[in-house]
Design a protein that fits this description.
single chain; 191 residues; alpha+beta; Aminopeptidase; 5 helices; globular
């Protein structure tokens, strides 16, 4: 069952672009998930914040945002953003992602990330993003996020001290990356 046209569909989730109309559900899920997200992630909690957050993801260019939705209900389970997209010889983007509390620990974001990899690495002439590389910068103490990227085939490439300003301070991050050649086949969802 599909409630919206999905960019990609798996057994349990569909991946679709953000819409401004998703603000009420997204922000309600974000408010319910504050304990899960803190101190790693701070998605928008009000509709005004959501509009400012979602507009560049919707307009395209150097960012693209996708909602991970449960196929059985259409409910938003999480989100995956491809930020800082650089074209030319680089063909790379940086990931940002999060699951919402009602969906956490069920493997839905992992399935969504698998679908995103297939879409991101597919050639543009076939409807994909045509990227060659995706990066994820993860705070060392965020075990769930590290397990997510490691489980999808990302490799640890390094350590960046004072990399991002998060929750009032500059935080160290591990640099994880995957290239099109490393990604699991589109039809197989890793465990």
């Amino acid at each position: 069952m599909s409630f919206f046209p999905y960019t990609a569909e798996g057994a349990r989730v569909g991946l679709r672009p953000f819409r401004l109309a998703d603000g009420p559900e997204f922000t309600a899920r974000a408010r319910e998930s504050r304990d899960l997200h803190s101190p790693w992630l701070f998605p928008p909690l009000t509709e005004e914040e959501y509009e400012a957050y979602a507009a560049p993801l919707i307009d395209g260019g150097s960012r693209a945002g996708f909602l991970v939705c449960e196929r059985a209900t259409g409910a938003v389970a999480g989100f995956i953003n491809v930020n800082n997209i650089v074209r030319g010889a680089f063909q790379c983007g940086a990931l940002g992602y999060g699951a919402f509390a009602h969906a956490a620990g069920r493997g839905l974001l992992g399935e969504g990330l698998h679908l995103l990899l297939g879409h991101a690495f597919a050639p543009q002439e076939h409807g994909g993003m045509g990227l060659h590389r995706l990066e994820a910068n993860v705070q060392p103490g965020n075990a769930a996020s590290i397990a997510l990227v490691r489980g999808r085939g990302f490799r640890l490439e390094g350590y960046s001290p004072d990399f991002l300003h998060v929750n009032g301070a500059w935080r160290d991050h591990e640099r994880w990356a995957i290239t099109a050649e490393m990604a699991p086949p589109a039809g197989r969802v890793p465990a």
